[in-house]
Design goal:
The complex is a heterodimer of chains A (384) and B (445). Chain A has a single domain (56-203, 218-370), classed as Ammonium transporter fold (Orthogonal Bundle). Chain A is built from 16 helices and one strand. Chain A has helices spanning 2-15, 25-35, 54-83, 90-123, 131-140, 148-163, 176-187, 189-192, 215-222, 230-235, 247-260, 265-285, 295-300, 304-311, 322-342, 349-383; one strand spanning 36-37. The longest helix of chain A is centred in the last third of the chain and has 35 residues, at 349-383. In chain B, the strands form four sheets. Chain B has a seven-stranded mixed sheet with strand order 1-14-13-12-15-10-11. Chain B folds into two domains: 1-16 and 28-258, no CATH class; 365-444, no CATH class. Chain B contains ten helices and 21 strands. With 445 residues, chain B is α/β, with parallel strands linked by helices. In chain B, a hairpin with a 7-residue loop joins strand 16 and strand 17. The chains are: A mainly alpha (384), B alpha/beta (445). At the A-B interface, strand 1, helix 3 and helix 16 of A face strand 21, helix 9 and helix 10 of B. Strand 1 of chain A pairs antiparallel with strand 21 (331-332) of chain B.
Amino acid sequence: MKFLKNIVDSVKPNFEKGGKLQKYWPVFDGFETFLFVPGHATENGAHIRDGIDLKRTMVTVILALVPCLLFGMYNVGYQHFLAIGESAEFIDMVIYGAIRVMPLVIVSYGVGLGVEFLFCIKNGHSIQEGFLVSGMLIPLIMPVEVPLWMVAVATAFAVVFGKEVFGGTGMNILNPALTARAFLFFAYPTKMSGNSVWIATDGMQTVDGYTGATALGNAVEQGVAGIPPFMDAMIGIIPGSVGETSVLACLIGAVILIASGIGSWRIMLSMIIGGYVMGYLFNIWGANSYMEIPAHHQLVLGGFFFGMVFMATDPVSAAQTNMGKWIYGFFCGLLGIMIRVFNPAYPEGIMMAILFMNVMAPLIDHYVVQGNISKRLKRAQVIA
Amino acid sequence: MSKNVKISKGVDINLVGIAEQKLGIIKSATVALNPTDFHGVIPKLEVKEGDEVKAGTPLFHDKANNNVKFVSPVSGEVAEVVRGAKRRILEVRILADNETKFEEFNVSNIKSADKAVIIDILQKAGQWPLIKKRPFDVMADASEDAKSIFISAFDSSPLAPDYNFILKDKSVDLQAGIDALAKMTTGSVNVVTRSDKGVFAGLNNCIIHSINGPHPAGNVGVQIHHIEPINKGEVVWTVNPQDLAAIGAFLNTGKVQNTRVVAVTGAEVKSPSYYTIVLGSSVDSISKGNINADARFISGNVLTGNKVEAAGYLGYYHHQVTAIREDHESEFFGWVAPGLDKFSLSNTFFSWAMPNKKYNLGTGVHGEERAFVMTGQYEKVFPFNIYPVQLLKSIIINDIEQMENLGIYEVAPEDFALCEFGCTSKINSQEIVRNGLDLIKKELS
């Protein structure tokens, strides 16, 4: 890779201080460090350092998202051919799905990175890697029929108001990808909910009995009778946002995140417990047919697992203390199921619950840390 | 009361180049005493270039306390006083005689002497700086009352020297040191060992605790935290075991103990083993023929030691020398490579599949500095009931009250070394902690 290094080195002076293009140093630096991990040596402090950096971390998360992306492509195709009543080969489904999903991915990355670059050039910051994951999450939580310009607007909104106004990667309060989805949900509700956006039909004639509703949409109307079988939801061959339907794909991602030490198992576990507790309480209550959906079945519907594995665990917007993570995760799950069941207008309660808990996370941490402080003060008084 | 502590947080970093247990001798033609080794001490010179000194002759004293002397480790001629910016004294170099002549100190009645007498003679003979204090991890202040004294009898850092080997014949000196220290505290002298107590098992006049677990179990701060935590306003003194033996030997003989046994370690060392050296020996004398010239030479261990140039000298408090590879090369798509040769606390590199592998790590940072993003990472290697990231953030914004609340008095920079090692965002937390401690010390004085 010597020749690539030579090219990079030969154009470098243009971007350095005093060069013609010094304004664009952050962009150049971003590309250079993308190609080559810089050979900086330690100057002070520990002389040896862990091999991990933020790029490696982000790439591991993207790797964990790949099963969801691939299954999402397959499911978009599967649902399409099911809806129009044609039989198709596996490969046709995947190709159709890829044709529908890839534009979403490209628009999300293009717009998001574009906005990020603009801010970095303006502020003279180096480009941080946070958007690498957000850019993949955004298309996976969109309905397949969402217009591309909406994805673009939502991504721009999320990067600017979800992240950059707070100071960039590491500083944001809300999860940027969920900010994008919430923005569209409230700004363009007709394109983000209802029965016509989840399955790509290309305006073709659909088969008899086709409704286009998601499992949660059906659950509101018909309760237990309307939801797909447990195993279908587990595998993910049900309508829904592009990448969220397969619990199995999410679990593969969860294994990668937990094994690599990047995702918090505390948040994931406590969120399952929280969701299950709420579902179980509803089972006991049983006021309507929606509440009667068995708790374990409730969890595999909608975006619960996707939100749990990839959204709630976002280290920046989640609680930061270990104790705080248990509390935060528990309420993400509890509130997610509660919102879903109580308010049929918001079938995707998980998004609301995680955003709400993002806002609450600093408060949770504050009280956890305060507990530690008062313990220390008490110890001092006992001795004094 | 003796305690058995078990910690689970932390990690042992397995490096290539552990010292073989055999002892050689290295003579250094010049030695140097480096005032910057004594954090917070402003030196006032007592000698000038060309003066003849003996081992034990004061070279400079602490501006804040004239009695605290810093003495020459060898006899010879003051060759050079090296100064840096603003005429700050960096090194006092001495051309060593072939035969060392010692200053004689009167220690005949030391067994029955009281605290004031012992402190006085230790300060005059330059042995006082061997006693450090927490909070702040600086030289102890004799005007304060130490609520107890802690001695960590082992070092758990990477490639650390084995004090049971170094001190195996020194039980008499150790005991003399402990007897003197016991008079200087209102509490007790605590010796903290691993389950294998070795030479420390037979010591009297002290409490012997044990601690088990990965690094940083050997950090005295961790041990104090778990055995007798420091509250605001309290002071605990600490002494390294080899320095304790040196204090004991001085009190037994009246001559300063000017030699130390250091472990010469690291992947760039041809035959890593132990050597007896004079305090402040030159890098040159140690590395000649044994260490690759392009290597990074570290006085101390890879986590907390100081980088020393080829013309430099060993640090006063260091009992280990490490030489590792200097990294300069950038890595093509290094962040997607499998990384079998990289050690990581996360399992994002496939080296996790080889838990017993010994690593040859270089000085590469492997990334660029970022804002805090990952959470829970520091906590895995930080065996304190303290929130490390929150503490660091309070230091960064200079919030003294919050630093006190979050427990800054219980930590030293070295306790954050593993956090710094494993940080995804490459944040230099040891430096931040040192700045925080300096700020508080300035505010309190």
